[in-house]
Amino acid sequence: MRAESVYLSGIGSYVPDLVTTEQAVANGWYDEATRQASGLESVAISDTLSAPEMAVKAAEVALRRSGHAPEDFGALVHASAYHQGPDGWSPQHYILQNTLRQPITAMELRQGCQGMLTGLALAAHRLAYEPEKSAVLLTAADNYSAPLVNRWTTSRLSIFGDGAAAVTVSRERGFARLLSVGTHSAPGMEALHRGSEPIFPPAVTVGREMDFEARVRFWMEEWAAGNTPPMAHPGEVMQKALDIALKDAGITLDEITRVCHPSATLDALRDQFLDPLGLELERGIWDHTKKVGHIAAADVFIGLEYVWRSGQAGPGDKVLIFTGSPGFEAGCAIVEILSDPEGE
Amino acid sequence: MTAPDPTKTAPLVGEELRTHLAELIDVPVEDVTDDANLIKLGLGSLQIMRLITRFRRAGADLGFGDLAGIPTFASWNALVVKALEATPAEPAVG
After folding, report:
1. CATH architecture classification, B14-85
2. Can you say how many angstroms the Cα of residue B18 is from the centroid of all Cα atoms in its chain?
3. Which of A17, A28, A39, A158 could disulfide-link A266, Cβ–Cβ 3.0 to 4.6 Å?
4. Residue limits of the Carrier domain (chain B) (predicted)?
5. Which residues contact A87 (CB under 8 A, 6 or more apart)?
6. Which of A232, A276, A278 sits opposite B65 (nearest CB)?
7. What is residue A111's DSSP assignment?
8. Is the peptide bond before A201 cis (omega within 30 degrees of 0)?
9. How far apart are CA A84 and CA A298, in angstroms?
10. 228-257 in A: which are within 8 Å (CB) of B?
């Protein structure tokens, strides 16, 4: 998707207190060998604030920086990967009521850790066909301090962090201009992320834990027994999304100054994505992602705020944001930074 | 890409591949027989991805799907040899 006249006018995040991985090992939450191999130093954890409450906090910052009035907004899109609150309740309208408080549409976008990036594309689409409104509010938040998931052990690829991000997408102005969004999916991989679990009744309704590693074990046993898993290389899928994003932006990979990637262990980050894509660790945000954990859909936008606010990306710099989601799907967005943050 | 790729590595084939696989899995090289199932030996998916990057940097254009079907040393070695033959020779750097 080639974007025209679509800007990021505000960005904000809420990252709760960090718990060091050393402390986690000392507490017996996971083991030292895994900790050392991961390179991860700490993880953001909120024992008290819910995901929608954190989304409100992130949105307050983004709205303040955006300069937009609440009436400018035509929609709110809230991305989530995990449960937000009561079933049959609308976290997105809770966020709307506690931020813009406008009688506009609000929707939840559940696309794993890619939801907020996809929200960027949806916002661009909306802005193209809603001339009386000039902005869309995107939020993303998750909190894994819940009984049916163990953030430390559910996946060997990352440790799940809590937190939120918010972006205001504008047709008028911004600190960054959206150049393109590229996506590519490998739907056959849904079976990989399902493993041997039944689809029905839904896991949470029967009190079954979210355990990614159990699915990995299932497929490795199948594979060892001669049944090839329906797996594609995440890096190969990401490469296709990246090719689209670069082509639509009209630039080459060499022109990308900074890369906002998801938080993962050092091996998972390199083996799955950075090495196959030909990206050096130094162009990424490992110094940031190793400290906060994998904050689901908010992850890469917390990263974007980090590179912009820290001055690692300034006017003229093109920033690649990439992430993936169970599906498997991969998404890339390319933005050009237009201005430095103003003193606050 | 016109600049020489600093990450370019020498091809990984034959006994060198077998030794590399044994190191990746952390088993004695004798365990990596021609037809031993590498997954059964303990090779993980991340390690396979790392291997694919290594193959590609040496000029063997192989994907995950190529290797997944028959995860044995003999099968992968044959695939690498074939892929290297299909690629015009390029001097390896580093």
Report:
1. Orthogonal Bundle (1.10)
2. 9
3. A39
4. 11-84
5. none
6. A232
7. B
8. yes
9. 14
10. 228-229, 231-236
Using the structure block, give the residue that is written with the tokens 């890369």. Answer: A259
Distance from CA of A146 to the nearest CA of B (A): 28
- Give per-residue pLDDT as tens, A184-238: 999 999 999 999 999 999 999 999 999 999 999 999 999 999 999 999 999 999 9
> Phi-psi region for residue B92, left (φ > 0), alpha (ψ -120 to 50) or beta?
beta
Residues 6+ apart with CB under 8 A from A48: none
In this complex, is the C-beta atom of B79 within 8 Å of any C-beta atom belonging to chain A?
no
Q: Is the four-CA dihedral A90, A146, A268, A282 of positive or negative sign? A: positive
Chain A partners within 8 Å of B47 (Cβ): 271
Determine the 3-state secondary structure of B37 from DSSP: coil
- Rounded Cα gap, residues B27 and B44, in angstroms: 13
Inspect the interface and report whether the beta carbons of A233 and B64 lie closer than 8 Å. Answer: yes
pLDDT score of B1 more than 70: no
Domains of chain A: residue spans and CATH: 7-174 (3.40.47.10), 187-224 (no CATH)
- ipTM of this complex prediction, to 2 decimal places: 0.90
The overall pTM is greater than 0.80: yes
In this complex, the residue of A157, A224, A236 whose CB is nearest that of residue B64 is A236
Number of H helices, E strands in chain A: 12, 11
The answer, for B42 touching chain A at a CB cutoff of 8 Å, is no
Token duo for residue A55: 């989304």
Three-class SS of A27-58: CCCCCHHHHHHHCCCEEECCCCCCHHHHHHHH
Residues A107 and A127: their CA atoms lie apart, in Å, by 16
Whether residue A117 contacts residue A321, with contact meaning beta carbons closer than 8 Å, is answered with yes
Q: Is the pLDDT of residue B93 over 90?
A: no
Task: Tell me whether A341 touches chain B (CB under 8 Å).
Answer: no
